[in-house]
Structure formats: structure tokens, C-alpha cells
Amino acid sequence: MMNESSSSSSSNCSHLFVRHGICFTCKTKVSNVEGRAFDYLFSGLRLSHEAVSFTKQLTTLVSVYGHKKLHLVLDLDHTLIHSMKTLNLSNAEKYLIKEEKSGSRKDLRKYNDRLVKFRPFVEEFLKEANKLFTMTAYTKGGSTYAQAVVRMLDPNKIYFGDRIITRKESPDLKTLDLVLADERGIVIVDNTLNVWPHHKRNLLEITSGFHVRREED
Length: 217
Description:
alpha/beta, 2 domains, four-stranded antiparallel β-sheet, 5 helices
């Protein structure tokens, strides 16, 4: 049974950070917390609106003044990589399957029934960008697919860590509300402009570039 002091502490608590329904501060079960879920960082994590605002400011201060970095949000498909189902490859394109199997091409990987091709110089780009930015991957692809692709690009979690936002967290449009940094310090690189209706001033639109064949997921 909860004693009077813990009950009073709970009633006075703002429940800024909650995980799996338990408040970090007062350690009590919280049934309803206004704010946003941040499961992509920690399973079951939810931040109140006040906590989101505070964390964005704190993260930006640490990044900009501590690590001398801004924040970079990167799309995956047709930005960092291209992918398509192997069944949809033409006869002239099927040699890519053999090259991936042989390991002769560092830029080709297999994910289930899909062939994944890295964009030219993507490894060099990520290495250089990491010196200037804290990076987040943000895709409309599914969580399992996105995790697999990011691990292909960043197997040791040097560039993205666990900062991978997918359609699970963002089923409709993309939003910087899910990125824990001040919007003024965020640059977005994406090949699709209309998925960022509220953050166009942060967006650098990139061409889809060369790929075997474009296919929407």
C-alpha cells in the first residue's frame, strides 16, 4: 500500500519521463501522460510535452556547445540506399544477385527478398558527416527493414546509435517533433519534399540518383 509521503509525492509530480507506465521520478504507475512516445530510443519511453521541450534544448546545448555538432536527419530509401525485390529485376539486371552472393561488391547487400544497393560514396559521406553532425535515420519503411538497413550502413552504431525513426513511430507524415533537438539546429536530407510539410525550411531535397529501378515500398 502506498504511504502518505509517496502519495503526496506522486500527486505533486509532473511525470515528465515515463517508461512502461512507471514515472522515473516518483516511481508510481501513471495511467495517462500527455506527450509523445519515444520507443525508438527506449522501449516504452514516453515524454511529457514539457520534457520534450526541455530535452530538445538540453540536447542541442550539449551537441552544439559541447561536441560542436548540429543534427542531421537522413532518409534511407533513394537517399542513402536503393532497394527492390529480386523478383522484379530484369534479366539484364540479375547479374547483381550473383555479384552480391560472391561478395565482390561492397555496395550490394541482401535483405530477405530484396537487393539493397548503397548510394555511391555513402560510406565516405557518413564518415565525414559524423564529424559535423549527430545523425538520425528517418524512414517511412517498416521498423525491421529500417533496423536491418541501418545496421548494413552502420554495423557498429558509430553514426546513428539507436536513432532510427520508422513508420511505426511516424505512420503518416514525417515530423521533427520526434527528433530530440532544437529545430533551428537540424538539417534534413530527403528525396521527398511533401512528407515534410511543416519543416521545409530545414530540408535539403536530394535527387533520387542512379538506381536499378525505382519502386515505392
